[in-house]
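for the record, two folds in this file. i put them one after another cuz i was lazy. first one right below, seq on top, structure tokens after. the second one comes after a little note so u can tell where it starts
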Amino acid sequence: MRCFGVALVACAAVGALGLTPQGGSTNSLRLPLRSLRPQTAYLTAIVESRGRSRLVRVDPASLRTVRTSAWRIGATWGWVASPAGRRIALAQCRRKCTSWVLRFASAASLRWESGALPVGGGFYAGLWPRPGRLYTLVGGDTRLELETVNTVTRQIVASQPIGGPLLQIARSAGRLVLLAGTENAIVPARLVVVGSNGAVRSVTVRRILAGTHYDTKSRDSIGTTNLPGLAVDPHSGSAYLIDSSGLVASVDLGDLSVTYHQLGSGSLLTRIAHWLTPPAEAKGTNGATLSAQWLGNGLIAVAGTQGSATAQVASYRPTGLRIIDTHNWSTRMVDRRA
């Protein structure tokens, strides 16, 4: 189930209680007592069953369905809400996911709007900055496109190619932040920023590598991978790429300037860097895949896996969950098994 919130706020009750001061005075003292404002924030959710999807309204406290749409559509592939949360755009997968269309629905009535808009590939993310204008990031395994959709006429009015494949995605206050790579290659990471006006900018982070490579001449389907974690501070407008070597790149999303920081020595991330270099006699390849999440107050959570593969066996181990403090670039392990 994929959920996103639509807030419904109930009315507040205000009461006054008449009190008589101790001692029997006839001068009554009235104290206005205000109750807490009750709030019921229901969630609008997409529930899939047997390849069909319904819109439902969910009680967040009990996760009970309190209302269900009458009309079902096929399997969905991502969604995005309008600025005020009144409309929803969902990508629907068709013909065994060989084609995709964009459908619109009302978050209030849970009714699907008639008609469907074909889009140019799988739906990765959407950016709906203002009424009437929607940007959809679509594509396949090796290509990406940013399509501009007029949500009134439900037409694609522009399309801009973005080099792929897509490796990581994050959001920052009206922006999409993408980590893009090169097909079948491990190259310096490329950070792509999509603004609320649809403008696309990019910067190459030269000291951090990203991607996956397979030897096409080999009979074994064994590859080398290095996927840094991506976290975004939505308030300061900074993006952070955390490499398995313990190197962190801080990117200012305003001017796309890059600064580098090294995590404290002896961290597990640093030890992974040595583990990534296989001995000469190894018959396989290995690599690290990290994911990161901004926690606020200068803290980033990062976790992932490290893998080793040969023609005979493949194994994966957790890197552990740790917290990075961007004030002094220290790390603290939370759970080594995560």
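(here's the note) second protein begins now
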Amino acid sequence: MKRLEPEWISYRAQVVPKAAGAVQVEECRRAFYAGAAALHNVVMTMLEPTAEPTEADILKMQDLQTELEAFALAFQQDHRRHS
């Protein structure tokens, strides 16, 4: 389940200028996902090692991790094509 993509769509509609070119939109998208990845890392390192996450918590974090990994892979592939 994608949890970040709907947030990106909302962010784009509210923040990215409607007249923005494709490059500006893509750079904003990359920055958005990079921020999401940074926040994910911070949250993961802040969790108490003794606290027991619920199964639902684990699934949500796995969803985020999967989506961030897919974005990173797509970015790397795109970057290689344009290098």
